[in-house]
Amino acid sequence: MLDLTYEPPAPKVIQGARDDWELVIGLEVHAQVASAAKLFSGASTLFGAEPNANVAFVDAGMPGMLPVINEGCVALAVKTGLGLKAAINLTSAFDRKNYFYPDLPQGYQISQLYHPIVGEGEVIVDMAPGIARRVRIERIHLEQDAGKSIHDMDPALSFVDLNRTGVALMEIVSRPDIRGPEEAAAYVLKLRQIMRYLGTCNGDMQNGNLRADVNVSVCRPGDYERYQESGDFAHLGTRCEIKNMNSTRFIQAAIEVEARRQIAILEDGGTVVQETRLFDPDKSETRSMRSKEEAHDYRYFPDPDLLPLEIEQAWVDDIATSLPELPDEKKARFVLDYGMTEYDADVLTAEVENAAYFEQVAQVSGDGKASANWVINELFGQLKKDDRDIGDSPLSAAQLGRIVALIRAGDISGKIAKDLFEIVYLEGGDPEAIVDERGMRQVTDTGAIEAAVDDVIAANPAQVEKARANPKLAGWFVGQVMKATGGKANPAAVNRIVQDRLGL
Ligand code: ADP
Ligand code: MG
């Protein structure tokens, strides 16, 4: 097993008016299953359709309609569980969570409270090279999304759009193992990355594909370790839950202000009330939505319309064999196989498409390290400038691979390679052919380089004097020769001949 070793990061400490405080955070992430059809109906999940265009009778809660489980959604939840190294429960069950809301026409949400499909797993959250937090996953359950109520389209009327009603969600519940706002954001991004590798959730946060409820509490230094040793939550502070966050920037801001609010209460001698709060990014504050006393009693009970969900180990094993190489493994392999830094490996494995592109460049060029540099510095830089993804890069991996191969073979210098990169990026074409057509090939013919060096030496007697007294100045001659040859002379050869001719 390829394994990068890591240390945990230091927890974030906030200095209150009197004391130091640490943060404890647990997340409930709602990830939309990347399925074309809903969890219990064949209606489409396509985003941006006409309101109420994608609604089956069962989604609309029509009397007598029966839900039928979508096997594809179950398979994607299992795949997600396997990707998070989690236990898969061969028997799980659906419960009704009863509440009234206009965009929930059934009058209940079908969820999995008592017997979730996925049990305990883990996510390694990288914070810096060699620094990572292991966050335990408590469970993942499948549930239905609710629809959307629209209150701001008409002064007198509210509208209901049921397109999202019944779309499959995976609720991924973490243990309270996250110790700061940056870690929380990095955790969400790591989950997103893993699920995008797996193809189980698109992770499009703007479209609400990935939303998080963020639980925050504060404690005194040492208390978290006491909780970890004993498993006793009494060592931790009372938590508040901030609902429905769909931006990592807001998650960080919300945690920070919520922790400070709790610290102010505690230092004032007050107590934190467990409640659900909402973050207001404009005012940068959290506001109470409902307290525990007002919390709904959902009257959960097993859904009588659905049999317990039984899956077979052989089916799970099949899904396991279809798992792709995951980000942690890919990253470790890139460090080992290509000798790149962990930082570069992070950049290249952020998206699976980037990693695949890089590996093709490396394969064509035969030089992993140089390929990593060219992909990260030149290609990503240029794509970013042009606001493009790797998917619509004008430069194919094969083309970039051949450019790097030309450098490696000594056919072109690194400097000329940048010109070549620009030409192929803008105009397309075969790198070797362009090098030949435009006379870009590096001059390795020593005779020609010697002549150029001799010319520069003959024309600059004063500089020759200086360089003989101070050998560091020989670089000036190398520069002049490179200029005279249009950058095409082999720099190592120029350097050697300059040293030789100056008698250094
Ligand atoms: P509930 O059923 O009330 O939602 P859970 O046990 O499911 O409670 O916990 C919900 C989330 O709250 C989990 O992600 C968990 O890690 C987190 N959590 C629990 N206790 C704390 C705490 N003291 N501080 C921060 N987060 C917590
Ligand atoms: Mg919960």
Number of helices, where a helix is a run of at least 4 consecutive DSSP H or I residues = 16
Q: List low-pLDDT spans.
A: none
Gap from first CA to last CA: 51 Å
Q: Structural class of the secondary structure composition? A: alpha+beta
Which molecules are bound besides the chains? adenosine-5'-diphosphate, magnesium ion
Mean model confidence by pLDDT: 94
Tally of extended strands?
A: 16
The major β-sheet equals: 9 strands, mixed
What is the CA-atom radius of gyration, in angstroms?
30 Å
* Overall number of structural domains: 3
Strand proportion, as a percent range, falls in 15-25%
Task: Name the overall outline.
Answer: elongated
Helix fraction, binned, reads 25-40%
Key features of this structure:
single chain, 504 residues, alpha+beta, Arc Repressor Mutant, subunit A, 3 domains, nine-stranded mixed sheet, three-stranded antiparallel sheet, 16 helices, 39% helix, binds adenosine-5'-diphosphate, binds magnesium ion
Provide a descriptive summary of the structure in words.
The chain has 504 residues and is an alpha+beta fold. The chain has 3 domains: 13-316, no CATH class; 324-437, no CATH class; 446-502, Arc Repressor Mutant, subunit A. It has 16 helices and 16 strands. The protein has helices at residues 71-83, 181-198, 223-230, 248-267, 313-321, 327-338, 342-349, 352-365, 368-385, 397-408, 414-427, 431-437, 446-459, 461-469, 474-484, 491-502; strands at residues 13-15, 20-32, 91-92, 95-98, 108-111, 121-128, 131-144, 148-150, 159-161, 168-174, 210-219, 240-245, 275-280, 285-291, 301-302, 309-310. The strands form 4 sheets. Strands 1, 2, 6, 7, 10, 11, 12, 13 and 14 form a 9-stranded mixed beta sheet that branches. Strands 5-4-15 form a 3-stranded antiparallel beta sheet, with no helix packed on it. A two-stranded antiparallel ribbon has the order 3-16. It is elongated, with a radius of gyration of 30 Å. The model has no long low-confidence stretch (mean pLDDT 94). It binds adenosine-5'-diphosphate and magnesium ion. The site of adenosine-5'-diphosphate (ADP) has 16 residues, from strand 2, strand 10 and strand 11.
